[in-house]
From TrEMBL:
Residues 168-396 form the SUF system FeS cluster assembly SufBD core domain. This is Fe-S cluster assembly protein SufD. It comes from the Bacteria. InterPro entries: Fe-S_cluster_assembly_SufBD (IPR055346), SUF_FeS_clus_asmbl_SufBD_core (IPR000825), SUF_FeS_clus_asmbl_SufBD_sf (IPR037284), SUF_FeS_clus_asmbl_SufD (IPR011542). It comes from Marinobacter pelagius. NCBIfam families: sufD. Pfam families: SUFBD_core.
Length: 428
């Protein structure tokens, strides 16, 4: 029997030493634990559709250089933090400065802050389910700490721009930790971009800790180039009456993977998860979500929609776990999928695991193609067939795009979606 592949030792070589001592020690511990770590295969249940797209070469193990000028010069309607190859660029960033709000690079933390942070990292994700998030913990060069004291409100959205320069093969490991105090509020936007054409990997982890009554909105745009493997994980832990809202828009690549894990640990907690994915060519995108209702009287609402064209492949695996003590839970999951060609493939797997007897839960999934009757109707009214295709396809996802609470982000998403339509639909 052929032995299972393991993580190359090249990925565990010593990284930069610019972090505080407590974080360096944490990184060393995580790296030691990864020795001979099995890589996912098609027999790994939560990677069975994606393992064949994972290409971790020794050349890719080296850390991409963080020196150089950040590419982003765009104005954003809020504060801006720029990561270049996983390291924050202060000169290109605008940090919030307000009472009760601490936003800082991991590299700039004092010893006490770093020790406190080291105790908090890696407490929101299931190591067994999100295997490659552990690689981020062993390799991160920098990170962003966002700490909101009780009742603090971030007055403008915080845009975190992740830039990767793929002039040579390598990897970047950006990380974010958000600690939201009681009744605090903030909006965080993550944008992932790239330049260059060499094969690289971006391995990201974002963690949210929401105290009682905290409200966090997270928007995530995955827009790197065709040479970038993106493996991301987002972990959320919510306490009493906390609310978490997630909006993700993803564009396919050689491998795109996002794991989103939410734990509703306090009564009255709420989460809303919206996701849109489009793939074309031979691209691949895999969304895995888990919502755990741990406490009673919590509500969750999840809606994901995928569009696949050409020979591309999209995956959605959504799991809702209702724990024994989570009585009066209300959970709803909906996944709709649109195939634009006979060669495209979409796999969907909604899951409900219920151990409480007084709950209201529903889930559903559909896969279909553009309706020929609707196309005929539009064409018969004088609309070109290409425009009719675009109108119907956009209508399929526009409901979710329009729920993104920031106009600038909606415009960015629409621009990229229009590029997708231009490449997918040709005039006939």
């Amino acid at each position: 029997m052929k032995p299972a592949p393991t993580l190359s030792a090249a990925f565990l070589e010593s990284a930069g030493q610019s972090l505080p001592k407590a974080l360096l020690e944490l990184r060393k511990q995580r790296g030691t634990a990864l020795v001979d770590m099995p890589l996912p295969t098609r027999k790994t249940e939560n990677w069975k559709y994606s393992s064949k797209y994972l290409k971790l070469t020794d050349e890719m193990a080296s850390t991409l250089p963080s020196q150089g000028k950040a590419l982003t010069g765009q104005e954003v309607p809020g504060y801006r933090i720029v990561f270049l190859n996983g390291v924050i660029q202060p000169e290109a960033s605008e940090f919030p400065k307000a009472d009760g709000i601490r936003v800082a690079s991991f590299r700039d933390l004092d010893d006490q802050e770093a020790a406190e942070l080291a105790d908090q990292l890696d407490n929101t994700l299931d190591d067994k389910a999100v295997q490659l998030a552990r690689l981020n913990a062993a390799r991160f060069e920098d990170g962003l700490l966002i700490r909101l004291k009780p009742d603090a409100v971030l007055d403008q959205p915080l845009f975190v721009i992740h830039e990767v320069t793929a002039d040579a093969s390598g990897s970047a490991f950006p990380r974010i930790f958000v600690d939201a105090g009681r009744h605090s509020q903030a909006t965080l936007v993550e944008e992932y971009r790239s330049s260059g054409s060499e094969p690289v990997m971006v391995n990201t982890v974002t963690e949210f800790k929401l105290a009682d009554g905290a409200k966090i909105t997270n928007v995530r745009l995955t827009m790197e180039g065709e040479n970038v493997q993106h493996i991301g994980a987002t972990g959320v832990r919510q306490q009493r009456n906390a609310r978490f809202e997630s909006h993700t828009v993803g564009f396919g690549g050689p491998l795109r993977r996002h794991d989103l894990h939410v734990r509703l640990e306090g009564e009255g907690g709420e989460c809303k998860l919206n996701g849109v994915v489009v793939t074309q060519g031979k691209q691949h995108f895999d969304n895995h979500t888990t919502i755990e209702h741990v406490a009673a009287h919590c509500n969750s609402e999840e809606t994901y929609r995928n569009i696949a064209a050409d020979q591309s492949h999209a995956v959605f695996n959504g799991r809702i776990h209702i724990h024994q003590d989570a009585q009066k839970s209300n959970a709803d999951m909906n996944n709709k999928n649109l195939l634009l060609s006979n060669g495209a493939e979409i796999d969907t797997k909604p899951e409900l695991e219920i151990y409480a007897d007084d709950v209201k839960c529903a889930h559903g999934a559909t896969i279909g193609q553009l309706d020929e009757i609707s196309l005929f109707y539009l064409v018969s009214r004088g609309i070109a067939r290409r425009e009719a295709n675009v109108l119907l396809t956009m209508a399929f996802i526009n409901e979710l795009v329009e729920q993104i609470p920031l106009e600038t982000v909606r415009e960015t998403a629409h621009t990229r979606l229009n590029q997708f339509f231009d490449q997918t639909f040709q005039e006939v």
